[in-house]
């Protein structure tokens, strides 16, 4: 590690995943780096190149980290993950002698408050999926059902209870009908309390005016609605927790039943805590997804080459959403014209809108974009580098990362220079059995040295820890294996060759990262600042 000297910058890097390991490896190459400090020395990759911070890294004790920055003459703090950004680490750690790369809590709301972000996008006419925000479960369900009322049975139910002012009672009746219909379809016992509720409702009294309905008649009447709730519909809106939910707060439901369940988990059961106290019900968009990231100092944008992430756990985009199971860069789906369009129509207006709100945003603007037939539209904003997108990006960066981040933090990004290795890069994520719900940890990892010996491959530690001479799994996403290649196919081949050498019990790895990509358009050139 180089000695600290006045002309060199001491850096504190906050965060302990694969993204931070990739950033640290690049920072460590800067001739102007003094000391590199890590908030997460338990990550063996970080521990190998950075010194451990010796005070708590905790939002409730930020004064300790402030004191640390003064004592260790930290010139730049780089904040990787979203939580410390949302908790205001940047607000507190910035001082006349310490610059911070990463937005203030106000800027990080782009990611930590999706409802606020949606309003900002809408006010600035930035193309994005339509959405409405709800804090009340019954009102949210009512909106959802009215959106699905092209289904005849749902329409009848919606209309049937439309006159009910009491939204909670309305919900209770619909839920009871769905439960009774489902039980009848499955020939299971029907709850007497549901039958009583329905029998005594104004609607059922009206319906069976002439005779007192028995349980069988009520159950038969409930079947079509239950079927409608179970019907697979590709057009249902997406349900999103407004706050930070560790990548689990988005549900793309197949059925109305799943959609109502997602609303219940967020708004009633509060499974995501305060993050789910507000939800967005958002128009479902179709198309390929790309990640467009830019570094900014609040006025200048440095566009990074476009990436693609693979969010689902399983091959062919099956299984639950994850933080990302692999990524590659550049994305052949985004040529220069499209990248410029995203910059012009999405990123610049977003920065302008932030400035109008007096937010001086310094860090990464990450737009998750869907390429719809109507043009690129924003799915989400992140206020940080992507994980795993940062791994292929850093593999391709052919410039001094420290210099770029310092310029962004200082407000002089127009003086920064970025060059990119023309070779594509591909990252394969190795995850633990049980990820993303309940990853198993503590398994011994073998083959790391053999994999690292493969030319053009780099191993990034994410959820690992050292115990004696062993490296063990210690999280959901365990490692990222990144490779450069002359073509994307070469890069993925090398990455898989290295990834196949690494083993641990229960290793999960997608086999189709960067596989089904279109051939690059002819006029593609790399973005340059
Ligand atoms: P997010 O965390 O917002 O990126 O959402 C996770 C994933 O859910 C995205 O990568 C998309 O695949 C999917 N998704 C989110 N919003 C929408 C939408 N409006 N339409 C379709 N799919 C979506
Ligand atoms: N890879 C997606 C993210 O960083 O949010």
Describe the structure.
- By secondary structure, the protein is of the alpha+beta class.
- It folds into 3 domains: 9-104, Rossmann fold (3-Layer(aba) Sandwich); 149-230; 289-499, 2-Layer Sandwich (D-amino Acid Aminotransferase, Chain A, domain 1).
- The protein contains 19 helices and 22 strands.
- Strand 13 and strand 14 (318-321) form a beta hairpin.
- The protein is elongated.
- The protein binds adenosine monophosphate (AMP) and glycine (GLY).
> What structural class do helix, strand and pairing data support?
alpha+beta
Poorly predicted ranges? 521-529
Strand order, main sheet: write it out.
3-2-1-4-5
> Considering DSSP H and I runs of 4 or more, what fraction of the residues is helical?
25-40%
Query: What is the CATH class designation of the largest domain?
Result: Alpha Beta
Measured on Cα atoms, how large is the radius of gyration? Answer: 26 Å
Inertia-based shape:
elongated
Residue share in β-strands:
15-25%
Give descriptors for this structure.
D-amino Acid Aminotransferase, Chain A, domain 1, five-stranded antiparallel beta sheet, Rossmann fold, binds adenosine monophosphate, about 525 residues, alpha+beta, elongated, binds glycine
């Amino acid at each position: 590690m180089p000695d600290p000297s006045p002309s060199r910058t001491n850096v504190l890097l906050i965060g302990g995943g694969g993204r931070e390991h990739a950033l640290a490896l690049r920072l460590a190459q800067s001739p102007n780096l003094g000391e590199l400090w890590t908030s997460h020395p338990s990550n063996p990759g970080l521990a190998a190149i950075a010194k451990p911070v010796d005070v708590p890294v905790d939002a409730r004790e930020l004064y300790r980290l402030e004191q640390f920055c003064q004592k260790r003459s930290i010139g730049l703090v780089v904040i990787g993950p979203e939580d410390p950004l949302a908790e205001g680490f940047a607000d507190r750690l910035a001082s006349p002698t310490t610059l911070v790369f990463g937005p203030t809590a106000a800027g990080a709301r782009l990611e930590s408050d999706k409802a606020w972000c949606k309003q900002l996008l809408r006010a600035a006419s930035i193309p994005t999926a339509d959405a409405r925000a709800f804090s009340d479960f019954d009102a949210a369900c009512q909106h959802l059902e009215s959106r699905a009322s092209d289904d005849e049975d749902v329409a009848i139910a919606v209309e049937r209870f439309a006159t009910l002012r009491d939204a909670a009672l309305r919900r209770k009746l619909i839920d009871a009908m769905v439960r009774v219909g489902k039980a009848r379809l499955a020939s299971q016992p029907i709850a007497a309390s549901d039958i009583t509720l329905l029998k005594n409702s104004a609607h059922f009294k009206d319906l069976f005016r002439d005779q007192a309905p028995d349980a069988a008649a009520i159950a038969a009447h409930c079947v079509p609605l239950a079927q409608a709730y179970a019907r697979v519909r590709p057009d249902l809106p997406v349900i999103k927790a407004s706050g930070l939910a560790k990548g689990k707060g988005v549900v793309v439901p197949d059925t109305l039943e799943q959609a109502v369940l997602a609303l219940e988990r967020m708004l009633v059961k509060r499974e995501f805590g305060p993050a789910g106290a507000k939800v967005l019900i958002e128009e479902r968009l179709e198309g390929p997804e790309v990640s467009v990231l830019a570094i900014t100092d609040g006025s200048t944008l440095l566009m990074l080459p476009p990436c693609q992430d693979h969010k689902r756990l399983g091959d062919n985009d099956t299984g639950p959403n994850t933080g990302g199971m692999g990524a590659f860069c550049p994305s052949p789906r985004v040529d220069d014209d499209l990248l410029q369009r995203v910059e012009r129509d999405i990123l610049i207006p977003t920065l302008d809108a932030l400035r109008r709100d007096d937010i001086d945003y310094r860090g990464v603007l990450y737009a998750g974009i869907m390429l719809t037939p109507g043009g690129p539209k924003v799915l989400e904003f992140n206020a940080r580098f992507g994980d795993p997108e940062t791994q292929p990006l850093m593999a391709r960066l052919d410039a001094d990362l420290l210099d770029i981040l310092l310029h962004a933090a200082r407000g002089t990004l127009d003086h920064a220079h970025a060059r990119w290795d023309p070779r594509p890069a591909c990252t394969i994520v190795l995850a633990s059995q049980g990820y993303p719900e309940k990853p198993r940890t503590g398994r011994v990892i073998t083959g790391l040295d053999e994999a690292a010996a493969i030319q053009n491959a780099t191993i990034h530690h994410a959820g690992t820890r050292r115990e004696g001479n062993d490296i063990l799994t210690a999280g959901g996403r365990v490692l990222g294996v990144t490779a450069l290649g002359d073509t994307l196919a070469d890069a993925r081949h090398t990455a898989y060759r290295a990834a196949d050498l690494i083993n641990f019990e229960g290793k999960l790895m997608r086999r189709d990262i960067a596989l089904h990509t279109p051939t690059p358009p002819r006029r593609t050139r790399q973005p340059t600042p």
